[in-house]
Design goal:
Blueprint lengths: L1 E8 L9 E8 L4 E5 L6 H9 L6 E6 L6 E3 L11 H11 L4 H14 L15 H14 L4 E5 L7 H16 L3 E5 L3 H7 L2 E6 L2 E7 H5 L4 E5 L6 H10 L3 E4 L2 E4 L4 H12 L7 E5 L3 H8 L5
Helix pairs in contact: 2-4, 3-4, 8-9
Amino acid sequence: MIELAGVGYRYPGAEQPALHDVSLTLRAGECLGLLGANGAGKTTLLSLISGLRQPGAGQLRVTDGQRPGMVPQQLAFYPELKVRENLELFADLHCLRGQIRRQRMDWVIARTALAERLPRQAGNLSGGEQRRLNFAIGLLQPTALYLFDEATVGVDAHSRQLLLATVEELTSEGHAVIYTSHYLDEVERVANRILLLERGQVKLDLDTRALLGEQHGLLLKWPGALPEALEQELLAMQLPFKRLADGWHIEALQGAELARLCTLIAKLPELPSLLRFGRPSLEQLYLHLSGGAL
């Protein structure tokens, strides 16, 4: 679907490259969650994949030759036109005709809940409604690959669930998706693979389940270091545990082990500020991997 080998890009006049030696392969039905701090190179990478920019180094190949569908961070429609007029215009630009055009128009309108907004001027929509229109325009083009760059910023909770369900529908139908958002709960929901960029380079590329783990365990927060008595007990029980940005995660707990640990914790002179059974969130692991950088 997409193959990048040693891709690099430097903006004119910049001292450091925006991307350096980036390699990845994305296949049909995969949703890649693209993470990184501001300036890490996420938008630059999407602009290269979409064809808006050309790599300065390396090779980039979209194997089926189709141009990706793109939902950009910036609003990309004509505010003086009505919602329906915007959709009709972009359908024309994508050369959609006949039954395919009608089906695609009906599909994006339903997926973005814009049916009642079609007669309204786009510039008079609320911020969330404008985001939904932006989303609909990006989905109009039938293609094998879709790119989402902070696509749900300013969208209300109900509309966000609608849009995320659409992203999940795309991958379930065999489309490839690259999804970037500062709402890490969104990325955790839709992505089956996580790629972390740091200063233009790939720091991590892992299956989401391998990153977050499939085993639930105890999530603990302590004001200070993990108590020595608890650490010794974990070693004696041979239970894996790891430090996160804001606490500890004790993995692979069974019922008897959980009861034994909770009994020990209750007797400690200093109690945790949080004790929860579950698994680490993507946000916790991201903060841990990035050293707490936002």
